[in-house]
Structures are given as structure tokens and as C-alpha cells.
Specification:
The protein contains two helices and nine strands. The chain is an alpha+beta fold. It has a five-stranded antiparallel β-sheet, with no helix packed on it. Strands 1-3-4-7 form a four-stranded antiparallel β-sheet, with helices on one face. About 6% of the residues have low confidence.
Length: 162
């Protein structure tokens, strides 16, 4: 009798651990703000990469982003980058900012490079950028505000062009 209770208790504990691990995997990145000092150092180190390009942000006429400032750095050999942005309003609950890249040699579809969720938002934000596919010749980066994980950008808030 005691052996059966212990086995049930172990299965329950194992189930809780697996559920917690899955939750951390799926939602963990949404909960942790980016460490500003570490991100600033990564931004500066990416600027030192020989093939990297740093560009200032171009705002749209959208009043939400009229006061933003920032820059984007992209290192093509490393296929990663960083967006530094100040005075970006916090996204509404359930919404998030998404950064897209466009490649002249791509399939015409934008590439998802990074996201900033409301739980990660700070007054000054660094958004790490990484592509799941190779971006050979990036010609445009845009930031949108999204409510679902789409493959098509919705409302463009700002842009950067190397």
C-alpha cells in the first residue's frame, strides 16, 4: 500500500517539474527583462565586428513613436544584432513589439529577428536580434506592434536601413 502512494507522489512531482520546465521554455523569455549593462556591452562589441553596420532608426508618422531614439547594429557574419531604443512606449497588455528583417536574396517574406514583450519593457530597451534563417543581404529592418505571432508584419512603427 505504501509503495503505491510513493509511486503516485513521485509521478505527481515529475509531472509538476515537466510542466514547470515547459512553461519556462515557452514563456521564460517573456518574463525576464534584458540586463541593460550586459546588453550595452554586447551592442558595443557588435559594432566592433568588421562586417557590422550600425544605423539610426527612422520613425514613421505614428504618434506613438514620435519621440523615440535609437540605433540598430547587425553583424552579417554572426547573423545577429541588437536594437537599442529609448522612449518606446510600453506595449499594451497582450501586445508585443517585433523586429523584422528583409533580405534582398530572401523569399520576399520578412524574417523574425526578435521580440519585446510588455513584461520585458524598460525605459531604455535593448532587443537582441537573431535570425533562424540566413539573412544574406539585409536591406531593411522594421519594428511592428503585434498581438499574435504572425508571419506578416502588421503596423510598422519604425524602420532602419543599412
Amino acid at each position: 500500500m505504501m509503495e503505491g502512494k510513493r509511486q503516485n507522489w513521485l509521478w505527481a512531482l515529475l509531472t509538476v517539474i515537466v510542466l514547470m520546465g515547459a512553461g519556462w521554455y515557452w514563456f521564460g523569455e517573456r518574463l525576464i527583462p534584458v540586463d541593460q549593462t550586459e546588453a550595452m556591452l554586447k551592442f558595443k562589441s557588435l559594432q566592433q565586428v568588421p562586417d557590422s553596420k550600425t544605423v539610426n532608426l527612422l520613425r514613421t508618422l505614428n504618434p506613438q513613436v514620435k519621440n523615440i531614439e535609437g540605433a540598430l547594429v547587425w553583424a552579417n557574419v554572426q547573423q545577429r544584432g541588437m536594437l537599442h531604443i529609448k522612449q518606446l512606449p510600453q506595449p499594451a497588455t497582450g501586445a508585443f513589439y517585433q523586429v523584422w528583417g528583409y533580405d534582398t536574396q530572401g523569399q520576399g517574406q520578412p524574417v523574425n529577428l526578435g521580440k519585446l514583450y510588455a513584461s520585458q519593457w524598460q525605459s531604455e530597451n535593448y532587443i537582441p536580434l537573431k535570425s533562424s534563417v540566413i539573412v544574406k543581404e539585409p536591406y531593411k529592418f522594421v519594428m511592428t506592434v503585434e498581438e499574435t505571432d504572425d508571419v506578416v508584419p502588421e503596423q510598422i512603427l519604425l524602420m532602419a536601413q543599412p
